Amino acid sequence: MTLALMLKEQGIASRVYEAAPELKALGVGINLLPHAAREMCKLGLEEALAKVAITTRESGFYNRYGQHIFSEPTGRYAGYDWPQFSIHRGDLHMVLVETFKARCGADRLMTGWQCTGFEQDDDLVTLHFVDPRDGSARPSVKAEMVVSAEGIHSKIRKQLYPNEGPPRYSGINMWRGVTKWKPFLTGASMVRIGWLNTAKVLIYPIRDNIDGEGTQLINWVVDIATESYKSQRDWNKPGRLEDFFDVVKDWKFDWLDCPALFKAADAILEYPMVDQDPLNQWTFGRVTLLGDAAHPMYPRGANGSAQAILDCRALTDAIVKEGDPVKAMHAYEAIRRPATAQVVLTNRKNPPDAILREVYERTGDKPFDDINKVISHEDLEKLSTSYQKIAGYHKENLAMSPAGV
């Protein structure tokens, strides 16, 4: 949707083929950091997103005893020209869908069209589809260029790399949920708590005042180091509270009762933290990959969504500059493939919550009397800044960089 809207602004027609027969507001929370929000604002979507999202004020880090380690402002509160949004994934999708229909035309969104593969010659690509409801064949479609934005289960990526093998498991399993809850801290705070050897928890609000009495919808994620995981990566797999609750049952702080929050969840999902090794090539003739189809990465630091959005900007700009689709796709890949590979690899060893790991190791997972005796504020800032630069949203670098880099 984002790519199609960017292309439309440049007078370039496209059509979106979506496997789902019906578009619904599914999923849990997602974050749009300033580098992704910049692109949404350029598309004129800031007001629409602000109505359904939380404009995040701060990012805070705590140990598993609820002791404060470090906080920093986010988005415009940190001096960026763009906000940071914490939003329900389904709300983001619906904003994009309704905008697409209004600007591009509802007839250019084809739902219930599942791609099964392609073939191409020098001039055109032929795509093949089925109806996922009954497996019946749909008419084949010809196009000058094809962008696989199919996500982690991309059929086009599978055709290009049939022997790639299964995803790479990180050794971390995740449980995710959303809970109706009263605001905590600022009411627009994102917090990271603990570390993986016991558990690491991420919590932030994604909808405000859902009942007219100030109640919010709170998104939470529990990550626990787990030796093996045999299930496939499926964002919609139901999870069980009892599989992780004992580890966090005592995480009751004066600013938030975590076990009560988890127990009150509307639903729980389970997902292994996985990625794939970076590819050496995305573009083949008139076909290229984008987003998770190109660079599936650990769901850390809001980078899955952000890097996909940056892909969209880079590809759009390349098409405008180059004119020729094949040259444009190669130019896009030359910019985005190295950048996203760096994020994939950094997420494996130095994630955005490396601050928690550093404090965990320095304290031996014990409470501290004074955080300044454990680690200096300057060192904490350096850890945060280092990841921001890799991911592409450090304030000074973002102000100077072109979009999509």
Outline the structure in words.
The structure is a single chain. The longest helix is centred in the last third of the chain and has 25 residues, at 325-349. The chain is built from 13 helices and 17 strands. It is an alpha+beta fold and 405 residues long. The mean pLDDT is 92. The strands form 5 sheets. The chain has a 7-stranded mixed β-sheet. A hairpin with an 8-residue loop joins strand 14 and strand 15. The protein is globular. Helices cover 34% and strands 25% of the residues. Helix 8 (303-322) packs antiparallel against helix 9 (325-349).
Task: Briefly say what this structure is.
With 405 residues, the protein is of the alpha+beta class. It has 13 helices and 17 strands. The strands form 5 sheets. Strands 5-4-13-14-15-12-16 form a 7-stranded mixed beta sheet. Strands 2-6-3 form a 3-stranded antiparallel beta sheet. Strands 8-9-10 form a 3-stranded antiparallel beta sheet.
Blueprint (SSEs and pairs):
Layout: H1 2-9, E1 16-18, E2 29-32, H2 34-42, H3 46-52, E3 54-55, E4 58-62, E5 68-73, E6 85-88, H4 89-104, E7 109-111, E8 114-120, E9 125-130, E10 137-143, E11 146-148, H5 155-160, E12 168-181, E13 189-195, E14 199-207, E15 216-225, H6 245-248, H7 258-263, E16 267-275, E17 287-289, H8 303-322, H9 325-349, H10 354-363, H11 371-374, H12 377-391, H13 395-400
Parallel strand pairs: 1-7, 4-13, 11-17
Antiparallel strand pairs: 2-6, 3-6, 4-5, 8-9, 9-10, 12-15, 12-16, 13-14, 14-15
